């Protein structure tokens, strides 16, 4: 059974710092991995989608990497800003499956 | 595109009452998902529709929960009767799926803003 873990559960950093959020999964037979952002009381916003054949995806100050063999993905946020404060969730989709299996999220606070 | 639309955004009801949550997926998307989010269990998939047909309802917790998708632009999740333990945020998500038979053609899911349900 696939399990998705995100460490740390919470992170507080000063503005301007570069940071890395981690996501690990137990079964490497994934089809893709998706990173989401969730603001308090809001829905999920898709940030990046990495297909299993890809190593990384970039969008602005965000860069997500994927290492299937080791069961890991990282989300790199450059030059963090207070507006980046939110909970970040990763989710994996297994081969030929529609289901997303979510991690429990990392709650990020960027201090001004 | 307005994205996935859910209503109501907040619902407070008393135990035993019927609750109906509504979702309008993104136009052109043919897959629709209902999720529930709680502090204890995180995000859980309740039911998945493809081309308006329920494909997997194994995540529906009890017979008190039912979902319908009468057409490509509308879905409902109903709880009858509601109980305090049903209190959660319910999300609807949609995605497009590629050609039938094409392996791994499930695409990015887009989520609605959610309905925060409180059952007293």
Let me know the largest β-sheet of chain B. 7 strands, mixed
Strands of chain B, count:
11
Low-confidence stretches of chain A: none
Tally of individual helices of chain B: 0
C-alpha Rg of chain A, in Å?
A: 13 Å
Portion of residues within helices of chain B: under 10%
Rough shape of chain B?
Answer: globular
Percent of residues of chain A in helical segments? Answer: under 10%
Q: Tell me the major beta sheet of chain A.
A: 6 strands, mixed
Q: Strand-and-helix sequence of chain A, N→C?
A: EEEEEEEEEEE
Low-confidence stretches of chain B: 101-105
- Largest interface between protein chains, with number of residues from each side: A-B, 23 and 24 residues
- What is the number of helices of chain A? 0
What portion of residues of chain A belong to β-strands?
A: over 45%
Give the CA-based shape of chain A: globular
Strand % of chain B is: over 45%
Kindly report the oligomeric state of this protein.
Answer: heterodimer
Going by helix content, strand content and strand pairing, the class of chain A is mainly beta
């Amino acid at each position: 059974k696939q399990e998705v873990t995100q460490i740390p559960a919470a992170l507080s950093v000063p503005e301007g710092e570069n940071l890395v959020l981690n996501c690990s999964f137990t079964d490497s037979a994934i089809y893709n991995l998706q990173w989401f952002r969730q603001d308090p009381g809001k829905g999920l916003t898709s940030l990046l989608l990495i297909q299993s054949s890809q190593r990384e995806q970039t969008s602005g100050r965000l860069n997500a990497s994927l290492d299937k063999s080791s069961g890991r993905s990282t989300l790199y946020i450059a030059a963090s800003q207070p507006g980046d404060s939110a909970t970040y969730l990763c989710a994996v989709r297994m081969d030929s499956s529609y289901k997303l299996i979510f991690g429990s999220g990392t709650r990020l606070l960027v201090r001004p | 595109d307005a994205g996935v639309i859910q209503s109501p955004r907040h619902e407070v009801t008393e135990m035993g009452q019927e609750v109906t949550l509504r979702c309008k997926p993104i136009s052109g998307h043919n897959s629709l998902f209902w999720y529930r989010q709680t502090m204890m269990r995180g995000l859980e998939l309740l039911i998945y529709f493809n081309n308006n047909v329920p494909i997997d309802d194994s995540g529906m917790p009890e017979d008190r929960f039912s979902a319908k998708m009468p057409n490509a632009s509308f879905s409902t999740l109903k709880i009858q009767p509601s109980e305090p333990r049903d209190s959660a945020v319910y999300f609807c998500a949609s995605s497009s799926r590629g050609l039938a038979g094409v392996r791994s053609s499930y695409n990015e899911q887009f989520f609605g803003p959610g309905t925060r349900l409180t059952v007293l």
